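Checklist before submission:
- one chain only
- standard amino acids only
- sequence pasted in full

Submission:
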Amino acid sequence: MSTSIAVGSAYHTGEKVPVSGRYEFVRHSNPDSHCEPPAEAQSIPLSQGEAFPPCRSCSARSVWSLVEIH
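Returned file contents:
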């Protein structure tokens, strides 16, 4: 049985990256955060097995979405 990873899947800070690819910042986990990360911090490459990072601007827990599989 194989698990398929879909483009658009969302992941949270601290979760393990399921597949190497490019991920985009979606939002902060806390809806009260007012930080707006700069464009260069909103799309990042990550490798399978890494942990999803917090926001690169304010270090808050964040939600990331898979946009491209490498």
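Reviewer check: The chain has no helices and four strands.
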